[in-house]
Amino acid sequence: MNVEKYKIEELNEVTIKVHQRKFTALLDEIRDVDSVLKKLLDFNIAIPSWALGTGRTRFARFAGGGEPRSLEEKIEDIGLLHKLNQSSGAISLHIPWDIPKSPNDIRSLAAMHGIRFDAMNSNTFQDQPGQKHSYKFGSMQHVQSEVRKQAVDHNIDVINYGIELGSKSITVWLSDGSCFPGQLNFRRAFENTLESLSEVYKHLPSDWKMFVEYKAFEPNFYSTTVGDWGQSLLYASKLGEKAYTLVDLGHHLPNANIEQIVALLLMEGKLGGFHFNDSKYGDDDLTVGSVKPYQLFLIFNELIDGMDARGMSHSTDLGWMIDASHNVKDPLEDLIQSVEAIMIAYAQALLVDREQLRKAQEQNDTVMGQEILQKAFRTDVRPLVAEARLLSGGTLNPLQAFRTLKIRENLIKERGLKTISTGL
Ligand code: LRH
Ligand code: MN
Ligand code: MN
């Protein structure tokens, strides 16, 4: 299915007047609107291939129909999304869920849709058919060197696929750990993991980054060998300057202060990337901003503060990705909402009066500190985000466009009702 430019323009025509009125009203609240718009225009969020199907990170899957049946169709889906919002021009692949059989063709197809390849993801948390050694007791931490080598070789294969596609980073998420006290020697598990990661690190091209993703729990529930930002930072520091910590919002213990974690990782120059999602309990992988939008804003507030302090580019110096998937929404509609939530939180955080905030902090004016943050958070920036989309050729209202253009109905016609996207 293709969405022609004129269809987007026709749709925008219908609501442009209302939009302009709302945008003009908002201008009083924004100091340097051009610079804010430019930042929003430059900001892109990668879509993981596994978010395009329903329930891809959950136990049960209730397919909604018209799901992508191949890597090509996943790229097509992200192309559609990107046409509507002009903010999701990248895909993140998971190997072996998305083996590119012909990398050159895949690369050209993605380029046709204006999509680049974000971080590659390796998978040593599932046994694959025909695999020699099992990861039941871990992969890079494993007590047997043959198992560790198998995991290392897989990661090297993933880097090689990425090189062919033009990716510049690999995310390693290990589910290694233990379920019971006594199962594992923590120190040896750490040392084995570090040694395995160093083997992979040696194969990184000079312009690549390695992201070490941490997670406190699941599938191991007693200990996790890359369980928190401290452990991830230890690995990343020992590995070298191309290794960074990756923060997935769903991977913390309840009520963790993620904004503080982000601030300190940035201060150390060791924050590499983000997996956005939202949750009530743990790694629920829900739509970004659906449960704790204020937390998301506070995280962006620290991101901007920390990146500006280090002179980093908001758009290119960190890896931005969504990592979500669940059962009850249309995956593309969900991604539209997630991207929108990220843009809104980013725009709100750009409005924070940092000079005033610094003064309030220096005077221990707690009340004013809170007021300054909440003034920005409570600003309805949706017209600002919509204006950025309009300027970049996207739709004023992507969700409405998705429904009016009957995108899912068309995908079902093309692919069938009983499709389940490939992968997990
Ligand atoms: C683990 C995780 C990690 C995986 C993805 C499928 O929970 O967040 O990033 O690669 O889910
Ligand atoms: Mn993740
Ligand atoms: Mn996760």
From TrEMBL:
The keyword Chaperone belongs to this UniProt entry's keyword annotation: no
Record Gene3D superfamilies: Divalent-metal-dependent TIM barrel enzymes
The keyword GTP-binding is annotated on this UniProt entry: no
Highest taxon in the source lineage: Bacteria
GO MF term (any one): isomerase activity
Residue ranges that the Swiss-Prot or TrEMBL entry lists as coiled coil: none
UniProt KW keywords: Isomerase, Manganese, Metal-binding
Record PANTHER family: L-RHAMNOSE ISOMERASE
Designated name of the protein: L-rhamnose isomerase / sugar isomerase
Organism annotation: Chryseolinea serpens
